[in-house]
């Protein structure tokens, strides 16, 4: 491969612009389709003509603006404050509400919002040597990441295998004197189920503890669904005791990636989120969020997206999405052996297989082979393996095709039969400790599963079956090792 013909990032001689773009487009051809309603995770597509072009133009306008210093770039401060105001108003805060003093920040995504919610809660209690957070197991993994990064202990609360919600009594029992934050999801990513926010916030408030509502996924969907008449329970600042809420604009606000909002009920609650430093000879530094230098691109693109779609646009998109959810749920109900894990109450359809002859992981591969990209979820703590569908407005025109495709994929999965891994491999996965994994063992496992070589295999059922056979800590270690094999520099 010569340097200019390859994809090396630093060729000896620069490559003309048009060709560089062609190269990127050629690389992108191997990706899952971000548009068109056939990818049920990772992407949020409203299917609105012209919106991408608007967002891209807005992004380009502010791409080189630096959010490091809002006094140098007041355009960004203006747009950021407008985004926070819009999110606060949508989520029960602002003038004339019971939460008139809501403030917030724009972050790079849900994970950053959650890390900062945990940081604010932790740093509000400097008296505690070992701060703790209470999180239902259905809470997003980013809370565990926050706990890990911030050295905060995580107290998980189980969820009921039928309702997929935590029992409020269990949440209350998990709160200790060292607890700095209690979490509820609206809804959970995995199953799309809304936690009993009012009850959870009440037990947190009674204990004098902050309560964060993770509405990263649903914050820009549930309010519209409620306006359309869906029975959405209270989950926002209208609920006493809710102290902070996160809502991702790069999800159901349909903004390009890199933008979420973290709201606090008042400025005092937000203050410990910030980091300021003046004890060095450089510029005085104050960062509301984790990044210091940050591009204005995502903020400008989100601002343009919200202004262009407006409330009427979001209502229309929510109605379309609601109907698509209903259609997909019907498609699942129509296939023998498949069962909805939860009745859809937001924008997620999640199903499992009750019939051992129908292997969900094989079904996912069969759907992929037919151009439908769904997300497998491993069995965990008494909850069965499941398939997750994030439903966005662009799915609506596809619903009629999905039903037959699902039935066909299910028939093909039955015909193929469940994945059978060699018994010794399964036994190894079930008994190995993460510490016992040697580089040779990992290389052998990866080769056997078709991993490595810079790309994931087309069929993932064997990988998922192996991961599922492994205890949680070994799953994590295997994931790290497998992705480590993919992330290798090209020379
Ligand atoms: C409920 C919930 N919280 C947090 C996150 C993390 O968001 P991000 O991937 O933007 O970091 C997600 C992502 O799907 C989510 O669904």
What does this structure look like?
This protein starts with 16 loop residues before the first helix and ends in a 5-residue tail after the last helix. Strand 12 and strand 13 form a beta hairpin. Helix 11 runs antiparallel to helix 15. It is α/β, with parallel strands linked by helices and about 500 residues long. A seven-stranded mixed β-sheet has the order 1-7-6-5-4-2-3, with helices on both faces. The protein has 16 helices and 13 strands. Bound molecules: pyridoxal-5'-phosphate.
Head-to-tail CA distance between termini = 11 Å
Bound molecules: pyridoxal-5'-phosphate
**Overall mean pLDDT score?**
96
The main pleated sheet reads as: 7 strands, mixed
Total E-strand runs: 13
Q: Tally the helices: what do you get?
A: 16
Q: Kindly name the structural category.
A: alpha/beta
Work out the helicity level: 40-55%
What is the global morphology? globular
Q: What string, H for helix and E for strand, traces the elements in order?
A: HHHEHEHEHEHEHEEHEEHEEHEEHHHHH
Unreliable stretches (pLDDT < 50, length at least 5) are none
- Radius of gyration, CA atoms, in whole angstroms: 23 Å
Estimated share of beta-strand residues: 5-15%
How do the strands of the widest beta sheet line up side by side?
Answer: 1-7-6-5-4-2-3
């Amino acid at each position: 491969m010569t340097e200019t013909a390859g994809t090396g990032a630093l060729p000896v001689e620069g490559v003309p612009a048009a060709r560089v773009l062609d190269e990127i487009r050629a690389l992108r051809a191997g990706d899952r389709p971000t548009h068109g309603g056939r990818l049920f995770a990772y992407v949020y597509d409203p299917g609105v003509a012209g919106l991408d072009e608007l967002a891209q133009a807005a992004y380009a306008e502010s791409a080189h603006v630096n959010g490091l210093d809002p006094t140098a770039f007041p355009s960004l401060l203006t747009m950021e404050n407008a985004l926070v105001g819009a999110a606060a108003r949508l989520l029960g805060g602002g003038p004339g509400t019971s939460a008139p003093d809501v403030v917030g920040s724009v972050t790079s995504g849900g994970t950053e919002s959650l890390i900062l919610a945990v940081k604010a809660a932790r740093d509000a209690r400097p008296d505690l040597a070992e701060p703790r957070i209470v999180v239902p197991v259905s809470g997003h993994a980013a809370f565990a990441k926050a706990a890990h990064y911030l050295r905060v202990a995580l107290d998980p609360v189980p969820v009921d295998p039928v309702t997929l919600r935590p029992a409020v009594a269990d949440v209350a029992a998990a709160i200790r004197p060292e607890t700095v934050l209690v979490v509820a999801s609206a809804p959970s990513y995995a199953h799309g189920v809304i936690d009993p926010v009012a009850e959870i916030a009440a037990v947190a408030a009674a204990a004098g503890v902050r309560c964060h509502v993770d509405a990263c996924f649903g914050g820009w969907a549930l309010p519209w669904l409620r306006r359309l008449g869906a029975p959405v329970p209270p989950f926002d600042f209208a609920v006493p005791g809710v102290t902070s809420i996160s809502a991702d604009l790069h999800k159901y606000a349909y903004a390009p990636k890199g933008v979420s909002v973290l709201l606090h009920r008042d400025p005092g609650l937000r203050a410990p989120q910030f980091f300021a430093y003046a004890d060095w000879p450089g510029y005085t530094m104050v960062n509301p969020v984790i990044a210091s230098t940050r591009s204005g691109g995502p903020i400008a693109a989100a601002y343009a997206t919200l202004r262009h779609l407006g409330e009427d646009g979001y209502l229309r998109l929510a109605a379309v999405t609601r109907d698509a959810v209903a259609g997909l749920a019907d498609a699942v109900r129509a296939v023998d052996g498949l069962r909805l894990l939860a009745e859809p109450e937001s924008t997620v359809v999640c199903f499992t297989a009750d019939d051992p002859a129908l292997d969900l992981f094989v079904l996912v591969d069969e759907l992929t082979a037919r151009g439908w990209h769904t997300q497998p979820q491993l069995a965990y703590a008494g909850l069965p393996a499941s398939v997750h569908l994030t439903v966005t407005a662009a799915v609506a025109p596809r619903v009629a095709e999905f039903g037959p495709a699902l039935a066909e994929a299910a028939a093909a999965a039955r015909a193929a039969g469940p994945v059978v891994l060699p018994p010794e491999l399964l036994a190894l996965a079930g008994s190995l400790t993460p510490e016992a994994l040697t580089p040779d063992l990992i290389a052998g496992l990866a080769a056997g599963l078709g991993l490595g070589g810079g790309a994931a295999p087309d069929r993932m059922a064997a990988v998922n079956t192996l991961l599922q056979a492994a205890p949680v800590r070994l799953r994590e270690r295997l994931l790290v090792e497998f992705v480590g094999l993919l992330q290798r520099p090209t020379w």
